[in-house]
Amino acid sequence: MMKFLNRSNKKGFTLIELLVVIAIIGILASVVLASLNSARKKGRDARRIADIKQIQLASELYFDANNSYPPTATWETAISDGGFMTSVPKDPLTAVSYKYILVSATDYRLGAILEDNANPALDSDADGTTTGFDGSGVDCVAAGTPATELCYDVRP
């Protein structure tokens, strides 16, 4: 009987082993999520740039038909109702309209706020500044410094 009581049939994991495994899984999950978040930012930025190019093309079609670019207050409806674009895209994260200002009948500024200030597209954009629009700014409106530039902007 004594032999039976001393016999230990230990099956399963100890609490420390389980905690170590959970900690490792947590660390791996945080690394994967951080990488995924960076990829999502880059994907949204790529979409913003593509949207800006589509809007720019629609604006050129509008110009060809009307001999001027769309007015600031109604630029989205002018492009979509005129049949130049079925619907004007909005920012993929915030669903807010892109920045647009008509400078003159033959000049405008169109911008999108990117999430990654290291995006190489920021080096080749227009960086145009007019009243109410600063293409080198962090929000396309306020002036910014090159290290914090987030406004990708184009002009005709």
How does this structure look, described?
The chain is of the alpha+beta class and 156 residues long. It has a single domain, classed as Glycoprotein, Type 4 Pilin. The protein is 41% helix and 13% strand. It has 3 helices and 5 strands; from the N terminus they run αααβββββ. It has helices spanning 2-6, 15-66, 75-81, and strands spanning 99-104, 107-113, 129-130, 133-134, 151-154. The strands form 2 sheets. Strands 1-2-5 form a 3-stranded antiparallel beta sheet, covered by helices on one side. The longest helix has 52 residues, at 15-66. It is elongated. The chain starts with a helix and ends with a strand. The relative contact order is 0.13. This is Type II secretion system protein GspG C-terminal domain-containing protein. It holds the Pfam family N_methyl. One of its GO terms (biological process) is protein secretion by the type II secretion system. Keywords: Methylation. One of its GO terms (cellular component) is type II protein secretion system complex.
Query: How many domain regions?
Result: 1
Radius of gyration: 27 Å
Which residues form runs of ≥5 with pLDDT under 50?
A: none
Q: What is the overall number of helices?
A: 3
The name of the CATH topology is Glycoprotein, Type 4 Pilin
Helical fraction equals 40-55%
What kind of sheet is the major sheet?
Answer: 3 strands, antiparallel
